[in-house]
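If your schedule permits, I should be very grateful for your opinion on a structural question. The matter concerns a single protein, recorded as an amino acid sequence and a row of backbone structure tokens. Could you please explain, in whatever detail you think fit, how the structure tokens follow from the sequence? I set the record out below, with my sincere thanks for your time.

——
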Amino acid sequence: MDIEISRDLQHYKESFLMGLTVKQFTFSVLSLGAGAGIVLGLYDKIGMTLACYLATPVAVPIALTGFYNHNGLSFWQTVRRMVQMSFFNKPCLYQSTENVDWIKDAYGEEQKIATQQQKKEKKGLSDGQEDFNMVKKKAKRMILLTVGALVVAVAGILAFRFMK
């Protein structure tokens, strides 16, 4: 039999009744009492449906107070944070640390670099064309030397056969 024990004792919860903690049980009883009281009090005057609709906004926050826990915050702490972020949050202002002169200098440097690259590309095309022509000449020489070597080899073989 394996007994699972939470390594973090802060998350350990003592069950009080039917797996509920004391806080959860207390707020569930309060929520049921408030909801039932509102429904029973308003049932005769406005009907069951409207009484339930009016009891829900009262009973649900009471129940959530006992059960809701998100990132260590209770329900009301979470609601408070949401309201602060929605209505009372100050806008984040951005102030540039750059100056117009700095931007102009940076733009000028980029233009210089771009013109240098264009010059290199133009030079690279002519250099590439010259390299291509050099390789073409070398290839022609190699082909001629190979053909010449084959002719000399065939002539040598024929001369050797006829001399024997």
The mean pLDDT is 86. Helices lie at 22-46, 48-67, 75-87, 100-163. The two ends are 101 Å apart (CA to CA). The longest strand covers residues 69-70.
